[in-house]
Specification:
Layout (H helix, E strand, L loop, with lengths): L22 E3 L10 H10 L13 E10 L18 E10 L14 E9 L2 E8 L12 H8 L10 H10 L4 H8 L13 E2 L4 E4 L5 E10 L8 H10 L3 H11 L5 E10 L25 E10 L4 H6 L12 E2 L4 H17 L62 E3 L9 H9 L2 H15 L5 H14 L1 H10 L9
Antiparallel strand pairs: 1-12, 2-3, 2-10, 3-4, 4-5, 6-8, 7-8, 7-11, 8-9, 9-10
């Protein structure tokens, strides 16, 4: 039988049976490495641009420190969070997501918020955004999503048809789309926005007791956003506006800071909470899980060399320290592989030997050779484990804590498909002026879309979140809300 020539295939020509859901152990995961389609998709995606970052190419960074202000040792054994007053050096990189290295800072886009803590137990990277949610919840969809944000392969122009077609066919994006198109879509500066770990992570204390955790960095400067017309003006007159603002503020001694809070969820609540706590398109209600203060991050030193420190900085959400572990979040599970793999390609297999990435604690491993090895390559020391010659050995006390998985290995979606409640709640929280600006931004962004089919499908999502929301978008586009939504 001849295969359908329009079937999606792998690079070796085999048909792809599921391009929406990664393969997991049971419905909740974790993701299986046997999902070779997912691995190929992510690995190829990481190599699509040379040499700048595929995403988050344009950014700015700064050095600083993190100081613990509240005892959280009952939740985590992480050494850098172990006592009030403890300070840990850190580096942060802020960025836009979709634009190239020379793009404007003031575009409507999420902002990357990547923090590297140089702890006594190794580097801990918290790689998040300035939003608590994301557009998709399964890493298998990430390359497709980012392609829609990039340039059309023929015209080399941004393509609103692709953007809204993908979003309208991926209703889980609605919450993040609402945030992006709101006032928060264009921060006034990097200093005047919050940061979030976005994903759910696991904290483990010294007794081996675990909880689920979400991170919230609240700006101490207060939230400020840019008017859309002023943002467009600045994009033309000073495309490096946010980069310049951060550098000048620190240079003048006006050190920006953020207070870190966490939400803590008992492990057993994950089975009963009204939203799947591992779905990165959803938030946890702060009424259910109140914010707990952890500490304060202060930025007090600019890089000496942009390329050496900002451009060559590498972050991976898989860089954990004892007391902090992954959750079954499907988007996080994919990022655990993809980010480190991207750095091995973009900067080199020995990227962690560069000064900006080098841990400030002893490193003992059996990795040898590779391009641009910058240290003694392990000298004459032991290069395998286990061994009988006194080489470094594993530390069983730091084994990852187990969590139960069940079910069959299969490519399945999340159990919960309520993509509308939280987006509608966010819309209803806005003032009338905020709603009007949100509607205007969405209407202006959707006007260039050529197919009414795409517009109507997206209007249906807005309407399901809140009838007024959908009706106002429809009126702005000169369309009617589709019947039956």
């Amino acid at each position: 039988m001849t295969a359908n020539q329009n079937h999606l295939t792998t690079s070796w020509g085999a048909p792809v049976g599921d391009n929406q859901n990664s393969m997991t152990a049971g419905r909740r995961g974790p993701t299986l490495i046997q999902d070779v389609h997912l691995l190929e998709k992510l690995a190829h995606f990481n190599r699509e641009r040379v040499p700048e970052r595929v995403v988050h190419a344009k950014g700015a960074g700064a050095h600083g420190y993190f100081e613990v202000t509240n005892d959280v040792s009952k939740y985590t054994k992480a050494n850098f969070l172990s006592e009030v007053g403890k300070r840990t050096p850190m580096f942060i990189r802020f960025s836009t997501v979709a634009g190239e290295l020379g793009s404007a800072d003031t575009v409507r886009d999420p902002r990357g918020f990547a923090v590297k803590f140089y702890t006594e137990e190794g580097n801990y990277d918290l790689v998040g955004n300035n939003t608590p949610v994301f557009f998709i919840r399964d890493a298998i969809k990430f390359p497709d999503f980012i392609h829609t944000q990039k340039r059309h392969p023929q015209t080399h122009l941004k393509n609103p048809n692709a953007v809204w077609d993908f979003w309208s066919l991926s209703p889980e994006s609605l919450h993040q789309v609402t945030i992006l198109m709101s006032d928060r879509g264009i921060p006034a500066t990097y200093r005047h926005m919050h940061g979030f770990g976005s994903h759910t992570f696991k904290w483990v204390n010294a007794e081996g007791e675990a909880v689920w955790v979400k991170y919230h960095f609240k700006t101490d400067q207060g939230i400020k956003n840019l008017d859309v017309d002023l943002a467009a003006k600045l994009a033309g007159e000073n495309p490096d506006y946010h980069t310049e603002d951060l550098f000048n503020a620190i240079e003048a001694g006006d050190f920006p800071s953020w207070t870190l809070y966490v939400q803590i969820m008992p492990l057993e609540d994950a089975d009963t909470y009204r939203f799947d706590p591992f779905d990165v398109t959803k938030v946890w209600s702060q009424k259910d899980y109140p914010l707990i203060e952890v500490g304060r991050m202060t930025l007090n030193r600019n890089p000496e060399n942009y390329f050496a420190e900002v451009e060559q900085a590498t972050f991976s959400p898989g860089n954990f320290v004892p007391g902090i572990e992954a959750s079954p979040d499907k988007m996080l599970q994919g990022r655990l592989f993809a980010y480190a793999d991207a750095h091995r390609y973009r900067v080199g297999v020995n990227h962690n030997q560069l000064p900006i990435n080098r841990p400030q604690c002893p490193v003992h491993n059996n990795q040898r050779d590779g391009f641009m090895r910058a240290d003694g390559n392990g000298g004459s020391g032991m290069y395998y484990e286990p061994n009988s010659f006194g080489g470094p050995t594993e530390a069983p006390q730091h084994r990852t804590t187990p969590f139960e998985v069940s079910g069959e290995a299969n490519a399945v979606a999340y159990d919960h498909d309520d993509h509308y409640t939280q987006a509608g709640d966010l819309y209803r929280l806005m003032s009338e002026d905020e709603r009007a600006r949100l509607v205007r931004n969405i209407v202006n962004a959707m006007k260039p879309v050529e197919k009414d089919e795409i517009k109507l499908r997206q209007i249906g999502h807005f309407y399901k979140a809140d009838p007024e929301y959908g009706q106002r978008i429809a009126e702005g586009l000169g369309l009617s809300v589709p019947q039956g939504v």
